[in-house]
Write a structure and sequence with these properties.
The complex is a heterodimer of chains A (167) and B (72). Chain A is mainly alpha-helical. Chain A has one domain (4-164). Helices cover 80% and strands 0% of the residues of chain A. Chain A contains five helices and no strands. In chain A, helix 1 runs antiparallel to helix 3, helix 3 packs antiparallel against helix 4 (86-117) and helix 4 runs antiparallel to helix 5. Chain A is elongated, with a radius of gyration of 21 Å. Chain B has one domain (4-70): 434 Repressor (Amino-terminal Domain), CATH 1.10.260. Chain B contains five helices and two strands, in the order E-H-H-H-H-H-E. The longest helix of chain B is centred in the last third of the chain and has 11 residues, at 48-58. Chain B has helices at 10-16, 21-28, 32-39, 48-58, 62-65; strands spanning 4-8, 66-70. In chain B, strands 1-2 form a two-stranded antiparallel ribbon. The chains are: A mainly alpha (167), B alpha+beta (72). At the A-B interface, loops of A face helix 3 of B. Chain A: The chain crosses the membrane at residues 47-69, 98-119, 131-153. Chain A: Keywords: Membrane, Signal, Transmembrane, Transmembrane helix. Chain A: This is DUF2975 domain-containing protein. Chain A: Residues 1-31 form the signal peptide. Chain B: One of its GO terms (molecular function) is DNA binding.
């Protein structure tokens, strides 16, 4: 295969990058919780509210960490030359599911977050905001696309498996 | 429809030509393991390209290597 060398070389680079992202994700959550913006947001909130808010903030990074974990597995497969395999196809599909999940979580957490923050306000001043950002659309589209590629890869893997049974 | 299975007679042809599997594998450009799988019939199929090379090497026809027999 003419592209095998390139595939293995770049898979190695991306494997290292995926591990780096996996390690940085929890740090980004810590940084977000300790930022000035968060401190201002937490002012006037009860302990339970802050705890729930932090939990809400934790969901998306956790799902993204799942995606990075699947990426490390995928690039390990690619690095060792296992390209058209069932295992690689499953990894691709799971990465897509994680990205789609991140978009859904973003969409759901915004109303919950706004509700939590305004819960202590007087009746009538409470609010729920719903928002769709370009990030959510991008994550959803990328997730959907990668899931479909995962399904296609699975088909390709089964064809490759059959081809390997030919001498 | 009658059930028929394909039997590989490569070992017979190799014996007739007094050729070793290793030599055939080397001449055809496939691994000894694949020749062994082919001999034991543990493959799903054989490419025309491989069959042509084997026939050329053993100086025979595809029918000398493959035989259709009624399945039990």
């Amino acid at each position: 295969m003419p592209h095998t060398k390139n595939l293995q070389k770049w898979s190695h680079v991306l494997l290292v990058a995926s591990y780096a992202c996996l390690a940085c994700a929890p740090l980004s959550v810590l940084a977000a919780v300790q930022s000035d913006e968060a401190t201002q947001l937490f002012a006037g909130l009860g302990r339970a509210q802050i705890a729930v808010l932090c939990l809400l903030w934790l969901f998306k990074p956790l799902v993204l960490m799942g995606a990075f974990w699947q990426m490390t597995r995928l690039f390990s497969h690619f690095k060792s030359g296992e390209v058209l395999t069932e295992a690689a196809a499953i990894c691709i599909k799971r990465i897509g599911q994680c990205l789609l999940g991140a978009a859904v979580i973003s969409f759901v957490t915004v109303p919950l977050q706004s509700l939590l923050i305004s819960l202590n306000k007087a009746a009538g001043a409470r609010s729920v905001s719903v928002a769709i950002s370009s990030d959510m659309i991008l994550f959803a589209m990328a997730g959907g696309l990668i899931i479909v590629i995962g399904w296609a890869m699975r088909e390709a893997a089964s064809v490759a498996q059959e081809n390997r049974a030919f001498v | 429809m009658k059930n028929v299975e394909i039997i590989v007679r490569l070992d017979v042809m190799l014996a007739l030509r007094k050729m070793k599997s290793r030599d055939l594998a080397h001449a055809v450009g496939i691994t000894e393991q694949n020749i062994s799988l082919l001999k034991s019939g543990k493959v799903k199929g054989i490419r025309f390209e491989t069959l042509a090379k084997i026939c050329a090497e053993l100086d025979c026809q595809p029918g000398d290597i493959l035989e259709a027999v009624a399945a039990e």
